[in-house]
Amino acid sequence: MDSHQLTSVRENFLRVQDRVTTAARRVGRDVHSIQIVAISKTKPTMLISEAINAGVTDVGENRVQEAKRKYDQINGSVKWHLVGHLQTNKVKQALQIFDLIHSVDSLRLLAEIAHRSVQLNHRPEVLVEVNTSGEQSKNGLKPEEVLNFMEAALDYTHVRIKGLMTIGRFLPQPEDVRPSFAMLRQLQEKINQQQYPHVEMRCLSMGMTNDFEIAIEEGANIVRIGNAIFGQRD
User: Fold this and answer.
1) Considering all CA atoms of the chain, what is the largest pairwise distance in Å, rounded to the nearest integer?
2) Nearest C-alpha neighbor of 104 from the set 81, 122, 121
3) How many helices (H) and strands (E) does the chain have?
4) What average pLDDT score do residues 9-38 get?
5) The domain containing residue 20 runs over which residues?
6) Rounded distance, CA 65 to CA 41, Å?
7) Is the pTM of this model over 0.90?
């Protein structure tokens, strides 16, 4: 790996920070309320370490096994986010690595997280994934299922639900993804109105390299940025 790649990661991250700041100011939001999660799937640990040196505080991975390998190699106080689909047979290992799981998309998965967290004496933080685009290829609850899910989730008090996550449709014009992000924000507001115990709707995880500025305008406070920091995936 050449020094140019390492320098690019630093410069890319600074550019992303500038873009986040510009988008936040455009709608009168505090830039410090927005968390950048650097999505490092397929990227080597050397690049991740360089991103951390550049100021990255949160790293996201799609797969538990890949994250475990990197987690064991990387030193430093960084928070780990699971942004990909989580299988129930990987829950125990995921709870030992990740600070926030973005992709809870079924009661079965939530029940397994609760079961394992009791065994580990751990109170994990999770987000509920919502399929706002209607695409069959995407995971997540249907928007109309979310309130019923929240009612059922009240039985699992060991798991702390911190908010919602969605993946927007990948479209040539980022502006066309705005309805998905607006929908997630409206769901957050509806859930907050219910005042469920043990549920905090603080986090809206939405927006990636292609559309994160639109997501910020619609209320995202966690954006998941991969290509704009690390370059195209291998």
Assistant:
1) 53
2) 81
3) 9, 8
4) 97
5) 3-230
6) 11
7) yes
CA atoms within 13 A on the CB side of 142: 4
Report how many domains make up the chain.
1
CATH number at residue 180: 3.20.20.10
Q: Rounded to whole angstroms, how far apart are CA atoms 77 and 223?
A: 19
DSSP string, 89-111: GGHHHHHHH-SEEEEE--HHHHH
For residue 227, give the nearest of 2, 20, 41 by alpha carbon.
41
Residues with Cβ within 8 Å of 55's Cβ and at least 6 positions away in sequence, in order, are 13, 17
Residue with tokens 């998941």: 224
The Cα–Cα gap between 61 and 83 comes to 6
Quick check: 108 and 89 in contact, CB under 8 A?
Answer: no
| Residue 1 clears pLDDT 70, i.e. is over it | no
